[in-house]
């Protein structure tokens, strides 16, 4: 690891860990949505909205710390990119839940549960990885696995689209469901962006 002569602002590590823990909360709400009937979904959406607001607060705190810190633990652009990508994940998960409620979707298509399971696993891995930014250790397996999960998410997404366009659903329902599964796919992409940023940071710090 590169030797430094100057002290570094270390609170970023705790803030990244808190942001990732909040994403785990969001992924659990997505899982809860799967087993909920339509009458319970509005309340889940409200809790997801609160989690998304907490994520925004965490992101703003990182940006504020970045603006006020002379010395940072790694490159400023990487701190900004990592915080923004973590925030994107929460935004996409909250959007998916909100769309389910707004569109009054009665039944999600088979395969969405696989999308959400992938997101939940990626959330756990991300939360486990963030504390390791302090030492830049045990991170390689993290970004390899998240990239594998994103590839799996791509395959699930393609199968879902094929299912939606097989003639079972009417055109309006297809539009609604496609937007939901597309947003969940964007969440998987955002997890990969986080992992790629972590890899970039680790390479620079090695």
Mean pLDDT: 93
Largest sheet properties: none
The total beta strand count reads: 0
The computed structural class is mainly alpha
Question: What helical percentage do the residues reach?
Answer: over 70%
Count of helix runs: 6
Terminal CA distance reads: 5 Å
Shape: globular
Radius of gyration: 18 Å
| SSE order | HHHHHH
Strand fraction equals under 5%
Low-confidence stretches: 1-7
Structure description:
The longest helix has 35 residues, at 171-205. α1 (11-34) packs antiparallel against α2 and α1 runs antiparallel to α4. The N and C termini lie close together (5 Å). This protein is mainly α. Helices cover 78% and strands 0% of the residues. Belongs to the UPF0111 family. InterPro entries: PhoU-like_sf, Put_Phosphate_transp_reg, UPF0111_domain. It comes from Streptomyces rhizosphaericus.
Furnish the topology, listing elements before pairings.
Elements: H1 11-34, H2 38-68, H3 76-102, H4 112-129, H5 140-164, H6 171-205
Helix pairs in contact: 1-2, 1-3, 1-4, 2-3, 3-6, 4-5, 4-6, 5-6
Descriptive terms for the model:
single chain, 206 residues, mainly alpha, 6 helices
What is the structure about, briefly put?
By secondary structure, the chain is an all-alpha fold. Helices cover 78% and strands 0% of the residues. The radius of gyration is 18 Å and the shape is globular.
């Amino acid at each position: 690891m590169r030797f430094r002569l100057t002290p570094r602002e270390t609170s970023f590590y705790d803030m990244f860990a808190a942001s990732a823990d909040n994403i785990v909360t969001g992924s659990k709400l997505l899982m809860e949505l799967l087993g909920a009937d339509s009458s319970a979904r509005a309340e889940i959406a409200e809790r997801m909205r609160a989690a998304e607001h907490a994520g925004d607060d965490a992101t703003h705190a990182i940006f504020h710390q970045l603006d006020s810190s002379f010395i940072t633990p790694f490159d400023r652009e990487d701190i900004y990119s990592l915080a923004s990508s973590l925030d994107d994940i929460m935004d996409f998960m909250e959007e998916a839940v909100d769309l389910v409620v707004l569109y009054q979707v009665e039944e999600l298509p088979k395969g969405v549960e696989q999308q959400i399971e992938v997101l939940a696993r990626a959330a756990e891995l991300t939360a486990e990885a963030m504390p390791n930014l302090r030492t830049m250790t045990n991170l390689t397996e993290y970004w390899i696995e998240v990239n594998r999960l994103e590839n799996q998410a791509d395959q699930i997404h393609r199968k879902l689209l094929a299912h939606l366009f097989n003639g079972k659903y009417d055109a309006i329902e297809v539009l609604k469901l496609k937007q939901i599964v597309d947003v969940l796919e964007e969440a998987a992409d955002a997890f990969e962006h986080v992992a790629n940023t972590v890899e970039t940071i680790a390479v620079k710090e090695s």
